[in-house]
Amino acid sequence: MKTPSTTFDVDAHVEESVHTWKYLDEKYSRRRPIPVTLEGEPALLGQNAFWLIDGAVVPRTVGKGLSLFGTPTSSHHARRKPFAIASQELTDIQERLSDLDRFGIETQLINSTLLNATLSPDIEFEHALCRAYNTWIAEACARSRGRLRWNAMVRLTHIQSAVDELRRVVDLGAAAAEIHGMAGDRLLDSRDFDPFWSEAQRLNIPVYVHIGFESPTFTGLFQNLFMSIAFSNRASLLMGFLAIVGTGVAERFPNLQFVFAEAGVEWLPWLVHVMDSYWRMGQGFFRNDPDFGHSKVMPSEILRAGRIYLVCEVDDELRGALDLLGEDRLLLGSDMPHSESHPNSFVKFRERTDISEAVKNKILGANARQLFSR
After folding, report:
1. Using CA atoms in the order 176, 5, 211, 337, what is the torsion angle rounded to 10 degrees?
2. How many other CB atoms are found less than 10 A from the CB of residue 178?
3. Reduced to 3 states, what is the DSSP secondary structure of residue 244?
4. What distance in Å separates the CA atoms of residue 141 and residue 17, rounded to the nearest whole number?
5. Mean pLDDT split into 10-residue runs, the chain, 374 residues
6. Which element (helix H / strand E) includes 350?
7. Distance from the CA of 340 to the CA of which of 77, 258, 288, 346 falls in 20 to 30 A?
8. Which pTM was predicted?
9. What CATH number is given for 8-32+84-371 in this structure?
C-alpha cells in the first residue's frame, strides 16, 4: 500500500520483551522482570504468559486489581495477532515499518504497554523501570529513520525523580512525557505536582495522558476483567482530565500542551457540560471560594484556548469534540499492536463522508506533526 506522507498515528505500542530491561540500573539486576509462560490453566481466562515482578505476576486476570496485556509475547493473545512478534516487540524495526506501510501509516508514536500498570509498590524501583524503558525505546526508535517516535514513561509518584527524568528524556528525543490520569492513588489536582508541570512547560514538551491501571486502590475495586478493561483504566483518564482542565492546572501553565489518549472523544461533551455546570455553581452559590476547587476560567473556555488535544477513534462521533476543541486539536491513533487495535484506522478514516477533506487531513496527521514538531 502506498503510504500517505501526512499520516501520523499518535497512539501505538510496544509489547515489552526481555530486551526492554537491558538498561535497568545494576542495583536492581536481581529484580529484573522475568517472563513466565504457563499452559492448560483455564481459570486464567486464556492468559498464559505473565511478567514476574517482585514476586507478583502482571497482568492479573482473576481476583482484584485486574488488567490484560499482550506482553510477554509468548502469550496466546500475542500469537493470534496479525503482526509478527518482532514487530510487536520492536526487536526488528523493519517488521514494524512493514506494518506501517501495510496500513497506510507514515509516522507512528510508540507508547509502553506494561508500564500502563503499577508494577511494584516500590516507588524507586518503578522509576528505575521507567528509566530503563525510556533508554531502550529511544535506542529502538532511532533505527527507524524517523518514522517511529516515542513517548517517555514518567511516574509522578516522586516529583523530583519525575522532573529529573523529564530533563533526561528531552535530551534523548522524546516526543512527549506520558503519564496517567492519577499518580498511583493520588489525583492530579494537588499543587505538589506543579514542579513537574512547570518543568514540562519550560522544556516545551507535551504531557500525554494515557489510560492505565495505575491506581492500586481504584483498580482493586474491580473483580471481573470485563469491567476492569472496559472502564477502570478509562475512568482514570477522565479523572485526570477533570483535574487538569477543571481545577486550574492548565490555567496555571498556559503554555503547556496536554494530550488525552485511548478513551476516544465521545465522552468530552458530556463531561465538559457537567464541569461547566458546577463551575457556575462555584462562581455563584459558593462565591468563588477557593476551597470549592474550581478553576478561575470556565473549563470549556480553557479548551478553546487551544492547548488541549484528544485522540479520537476511527468511528467516533466528532461533532461535539470539534465544537469544543476545534479542528486543530484532534488526533488519530490505531492502538497497534494491541488485541483491540484498529490498524486500518487511517484507511477507514479517509473514507468518512461526515467531515470535510481538510478536517480529515488535519486529524490524519497535520495536527500531530505540528504538535510534535519540537
Report:
1. -120
2. 27
3. helix
4. 15
5. 72 98 97 92 82 94 90 90 96 98 97 97 98 98 98 98 98 98 97 98 98 95 92 96 98 98 98 98 95 97 97 97 98 94 92 96 98 90
6. helix 345-350
7. 258
8. 0.96
9. 3.20.20.140
